[in-house]
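Hallway conversation turned thread

IA: we were arguing at lunch whether anyone had actually written out HTH luxR-type domain-containing protein end to end. Turns out nobody had. So, for the record, here is the sequence (228 residues) and right after it the structure tokens. Reply here if something looks off.
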Amino acid sequence: MKELKMTNENVSLVNFNKINVLMADFEKAGDTQDLTSILKKEALECGYKVLGVLDYNPLSAQSYQLNYFGEIDKDLAKCLDSDDGYLHCKNGLRIKPLSQVIDYKDNCCGLYLLPLRGVAGIAGGIIFDIPETVETFGSIEMIDWYWTILSPYLLNAAIRCRTGSVNITKREKDCLVWACEGKTSWEISQILGISERTVNFHLSNCIVKTNSANRQQAIVKCLVKNLI
């Protein structure tokens, strides 16, 4: 694990040892229980009443399944399972009060939503209140900065801890099967009677759904899961 080094006197309040420990913990998290335990421990130590991670697992280019970890009330999770929450986590760059993101303002008082930075097509966020021990961080800007550093580790942990199976459509499966045979997108389009652009669209969906870097990795993951 690469150690962080402090390079800016303005962030001297941040405990970098704590950040490095959390990075290591997130990298070790292998299931929902692991990640939830880490977040609950952080909430207890820092005084958060709400501290949770949202993972909008893409099922297709237009749909997703929300997974959440940590200290999030079920009613609040239902409020976050919305296009507004998803689009903010997918396209947003900055922290926002939750009341400015979703309409259910009665459940949002004092809560903030910070998008987590991930690879293209992956959306996630961290939701929290202002911790009782706010002096641990110094300000809301410092909390923003703190979790932004941790965001790639946290999002990767959430993706690893997803529950449920990957949902591959019949047409996506057809494209993967022929790609597995070494066919190019153009060749697959001729076999299936669809456009090359449509083939690439289906294969891109498979890459996103399986959290893969390319079609070869998506094929391997689908073979391991007996999806093709």
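OS: looked through it. Strands lie at 51-58, 64-71, 96-97, 111-116, 123-129.
IA: good, adding that to the notes. Confidence is low (pLDDT under 50) at residues 1-13.
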